[in-house]
Amino acid sequence: MRCNVAPRSLGYSPYFNLNRPLTRRSLRAIRNVLLSTHHFDENIPIETAQGEAAVLIPLANVMDVPGILLEVRGKTLRSHSGEVSFPGGRVDTNDSSYMDAALRETREELGIGAQNIEILGQVGPPELNLRRNMVVYPFVGFVHAGSPIPDHSTTDDMPLPSCDLDAIRENVSETEVDAVFHLPLSALASPTRLRASLFRGHRPYWAIGVQDLIPNGAPNTEDRSKQNESDDGDDSEIGIGRYGNLEVWGLTGWYLYLLMKRLKLYI
């Protein structure tokens, strides 16, 4: 089954400028939107999942370009190796909340401490992973270059300092992360990057091509792309699209689509 009713991109959002750095004003607007839409109850499990996981959608300015940090999972990992994902993973017994788990995993994978991340809210509802044995809870945050700037009017429209992507790359977990890259917000509205797809075979959304954004090129996807190729949606959980091109799709693509839909970039 093909995607007959594709989502559309407006090419702009009323809450941020696609081509200008995020500011305190834009972060406040994003937080208010997330608070006014969906939030999930951490006490309600989904179906009979055996475990729980949490991910962070990390907004960041890089070289004064607003965007989202994404990672390519390490090639030696047992699941979804070489695929695109947000930082995140299984909730441990020592985690005090799903948000705490998302922050811990971000520190372990990308070396970004919780003190540099400003949580803006949640996007959801949470979804089961492809194997239906894990409930995945998504959070949205902004990665500050230093400690978060106080939220007051004198800094409302000043561009927030950019992260040093090279410095982040020096601190990633070599076993868990093969590459880190920055997906500009403007790319989320670029027709040449968007491919109409179906999440779980029936929910339309955009998959996003990112192959050219990966430093030193994308991992070898030839064998995996043949296995995951599908006309009706996402056979893989996250990462490698049709024809061997690296894409943000599956659960990662779905959460990114939900966020951009909340922020009115997509309709």
Task: Provide an overview of this structure.
InterPro entries: CoAse, NUDIX_hydrolase-like_dom_sf, NUDIX_hydrolase_dom. The chain has 267 residues and is α+β, with helices and mostly antiparallel strands. It has a domain of 178 residues: Nucleoside Triphosphate Pyrophosphohydrolase (Alpha-Beta Complex). Helix content is 19%, strand content 25%.
How would you sum up this structure in a few lines?
The chain is of the alpha+beta class.
Q: Helix coverage percent of residues?
A: 10-25%
CATH superfamily of one domain, called what?
Nucleoside Triphosphate Pyrophosphohydrolase
Task: Give the CA-based shape.
Answer: globular
* CATH topology-level name of one domain: Nucleoside Triphosphate Pyrophosphohydrolase
Question: Kindly, what is the distance between the CA atoms of the first and last residues, rounded to a whole number of angstroms?
Answer: 22 Å
Question: What is the total tally of β strands?
Answer: 11
Unreliable sequence segments? 220-243
**Order of helices and strands, N to C?**
HEEEEHEEEHEEEHEH
What structural category arises from helix and sheet content? alpha+beta
Radius of gyration, CA atoms, in whole angstroms: 17 Å
DSSP summary: helix tally: 5
Please describe the biggest sheet, giving its number of strands, its sense, and whether it closes into a barrel. 8 strands, mixed
Strand content: 25-35%
What would you say the CATH architecture of one domain is? Alpha-Beta Complex
User: What top-tier CATH class of one domain fits best?
Assistant: Alpha Beta
Give the integer mean of the pLDDT values. 83
